[in-house]
Design goal:
CATH architecture: Orthogonal Bundle
Bound molecules: heme C
CATH superfamily: Cytochrome c-like domain
Distance between the termini: 65 Å
Number of helices: 5
Structural class: mainly alpha
Strand content: under 5%
CATH topology: Cytochrome Bc1 Complex, Chain D, domain 2
Radius of gyration: 17 Å
CATH class: Mainly Alpha
Order of helices and strands: HHHHH
Shape: globular
Length: about 120
């Protein structure tokens, strides 16, 4: 019965997806950053376009509460007088909330100076 086999394949695929989201994959944040965020924020977090803050200098930006930063990543963000906006989900609607949490962890680890 080829129909039944297809259904089994589809459900095991779903189980795999939810498992991989639940696991805290340390490489995920880096992959998201290098795939999407790097275009504006640069490999070193210093920003590669006018209007993008230097996250290594302005350590206080990444020190804000997770809730604030995650909302800004999800909804997009433009501060007063800024020539460029941070696009919702970095411009990639396929990024999940878990992806954004992982990339926030990565950015803090890589760019935030301990003073
Ligand atoms: C099209 C360029 C662009 C891309 C792509 C982009 N950003 Fe941004 N991001 C910005 C700009 C511009 C700002 C500053 C906005 C402002 O202050 O008005 C910003 C600010 C931020 C901030 C600081 C927020 C704050 O409270 O000041 C964080 C965190 C951030 N981005 C994370 C990300 C992440 C994570 C990604 C990838 C998923 C990403 N950005 C992709 C342009 C971009």
């Amino acid at each position: 019965m080829p129909g039944a086999r297809l259904i089994i394949l589809a459900t095991s695929g779903l189980a795999f997806v939810s498992l991989s989201v639940a696991a805290d994959d340390p490489g995920r944040g880096e992959a998201v950053y290098k795939g999407t965020c790097i275009a504006c924020h640069g490999g070193d977090g210093a920003g590669s376009l006018p209007g993008v803050p230097d996250l290594t200098e302005k350590a206080e930006l990444l020190s804000q509460d997770d809730a604030i930063l995650l909302r800004r990543m999800v909804e997009g963000f433009r501060s007063a007088g800024s020539p460029l906006e941070m696009p919702p989900r970095g411009g990639d609607p396929a990024l999940t909330d878990a992806d954004l949490k992982a990339v926030l962890k990565y950015m803090r680890r890589e760019f935030q100076q301990t003073r």
